[in-house]
Design a protein that fits this description.
With 433 residues, the protein is mainly α. 65% of the residues lie in helices and 1% in strands. The chain has one domain. Strands 1-2 form a two-stranded antiparallel sheet. A hairpin with a 2-residue loop joins β1 and β2.
Length: 433
Amino acid sequence: MLLSFVKKGQSLFILSFTVLVLAGVLILKLPWCYRAGVLSWPDAVFMATSAVCINGLTVVPIHDFTIFGQLMILAMVQVGGIGIMTLSASILLMLGRGLSFSDTLLISNLSDNFSLRGTEGLTRTVVNYTLVCEAIGMLIMLPGFLVKYPFGESLWYSFFHAITGFCNAGLSPFSESLAGQTRLTQFGVAAMIVLGGLGVYVIYDLFQVVRRRSTSLRLHSKVVLFTNTILIVAGAVLLWILALVNRGSLPWFDAFFLSISARTAGFTTFDVTGLPAGSVTLLIVLMLIGASPGSTGGGMKTSTVAVAAAAILNTLKGNAEVLLFRRKVPTGNVMRAFTIIVLFLLLTCCGAVSIQLLMPGAEMMEAFFESASALSTTGLTIGGTAKLTDAGKLVLSFFMFCGRLGPFTIMLFLLAREKQGRLRYPEERIIIS
């Protein structure tokens, strides 16, 4: 029974985003969406996939679209952002209904932040949280835009960046992203990225504590909040140090913003093409780690990496069990975390090789960066996207789609394959080194 539920969940998840992308392609092909006439099919597929999968990579500048076209792109981003949060969480909730007791226990570690009474309350929480955050972000950014633009333009830019920021999409009507904008505007976008990247599981858990329906945060929420803080601070410090070592200078705020944005948002406050190799490598690592489960961001997910890191640290300490915040992490969770990481890295390597073949004159570092950016749905580029052929655009679109759906689909697949063995086999050690 669990297997059939999981298969339905996988099919619903993949089909919904496939339909959204196809609808987006047809919309962007309309002549009144693009100022220069009609988009080519490869460009329409690329832009629709980037918007629905909230990636941010572009082969056509956003300002080349009409207001109607920009509004359609914004709608795709919003539907894709809310969809990824509600679908992933709702599917897990549905898996907990109507199953046998043993099957329910099997998935309880995935959905125990929620009561299994229904998905209506969860969906309402996601939508309300999204709209409230975007409204607040819009109000924060509006004064920043008013310094440089008329009220009408400032209102539109605030509205646009509030949505793309919260959804971690990285799309902007400005050709240089947020470079040259006020610090208030940049801070507002950074806040939206963080709020959108925490994930519905953490938000729901925080609401439960605020409403005093729970006395403390669950382990998942603690891990996500702790890991996000460490990554933001460590990323900013390392980016600043690497720039200093390479005889450059990087303002603290720019390092702080890039540390946040590199984990699946894709906005920039300066030209990243001139960063040294060490900084580029660090950005690839941050992109691959990504945001948190049930969020608008992509990547391997913070909790996945945190569980793997905890397993390594506990092994070095000589612990036979994986402990986090004085709680034991189930072995199944640890194995799934390492499986997702390995598969994600293999897919990144495959993407890099494919992109280099379809990106004339590109170096392998550039190809790896574009592959990681697509798979993690980040949208950052160091110039490789502009070199893509039509075939390369389609291949990168495929990797963007895989990056958006991959981690959750893999998790569902692993969940369906997990089973309680009745036989106990004799234990025998293997020489590791």
